[in-house]
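Listing S7. Sequence submitted for prediction.
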Amino acid sequence: MMPSPAHGWPPHFALVLGGGAARGAAHIGVLRSLVEDGLCPDLLVGVSIGAIVGAAFAAEDDPMRALERLREASSALQARFLGFPPTIRIFRILGLFGRRQRREWLEQHLGLNGRRFESLRLPLRVTATRLFPLGRAVFGAKLDEPVVEALMASSALPSRFPVRYGGRFFVDGALAGNLPTLAALEMGARVIVAVNLGFLFRRRDDLGRFFPWRLIDWLAKAQMRWEIARCRRRGAIVIQIGPADFEAESILAFEKLDKQIEAGYKATQLSLPAIRRALQKGRTVTMS
C-alpha cells in the first residue's frame, strides 16, 4: 500500500476538484483520463460538486468501477432534464438542490450511505464555508467523520437554508474559495493538479463581460489565482486544468452532462505530459 495522509504520510500528488454544479461532470472526464494513464493522486480535495465526485471516486476499491458508477449516476441525472422545456427544468433543478434530493443522490445513487472518511480508498478533504465565524472549513482530518454530512455542508447553496453540522452553520464551499489548492498544500502535497470550472456565469467575450454583476466572477477568480500563486511561492508545482469549454455552458445545464465529461477528458489528455513532468520533477526534488 502506498503511503497516504490517512496512514500518517504526506501526499505527493493532490487533485483539487472545483465547484460548478452541472459543470462538475467534467471531473469525471478528468479522472478517467488520469486513471487510463496510470496516474492516481495521493490526495483528493474538493468543494461542492468537486467534493461529491471526489468522494464517489474514493469510495470504490476499483477506480474503473468508481468511474462506471459516476457515469451511471451522471446519465441518470441527465435523463431527468432531457426533452423538458426550461420551466420544468428549473423546477427540477430547484428540487435537486434541496436537502432531501441531494442526500438521496449521495446515499443511494453514489453509494455513500454510512461511509466515513476512514473507509475511503483515497484520502479526501472537503471544504465548506463556515458562517460563524466566516471562513473556510475543511472536513476529513477526523477520519470517523461521516462523508455525507461533509458533502451536504460543502454543497449547501446560499440561496437555500444553510446546513447545521457539529453545532455550526455551513453553506457552499465555493464562497470561501472555489479552487482550494491551499488545502492540498497544507496537507503537504508537492504537485497539485487543479480543475477549475470557473465560478458562476458563462464565459463571455462580448460586452456582456462588463456587466456589473459579473464582478462576482472576477472576485472569485482573483481569489483562485491568489491561492494558486501562494502555493507556487511555497514551492508547490501547480497545474491548472480549466479551458474555456468548461465555462461555455451554464452551471445549470444538467441536460449536457455528457458534453462536460468529454470536455474534461480532452482537457486532461492535453495536460498529461505536463503532469508527468511535474510528478517526476517533484519526486526528484523531494528525494534530493
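Caption to Listing S7: primary sequence and predicted C-alpha cells for the chain studied. The first strand starts at residue 13 and ends at 17. The beta strands are 13-17, 43-47, 124-130, 135-139, 163-165, 168-171, 191-195, 237-241.
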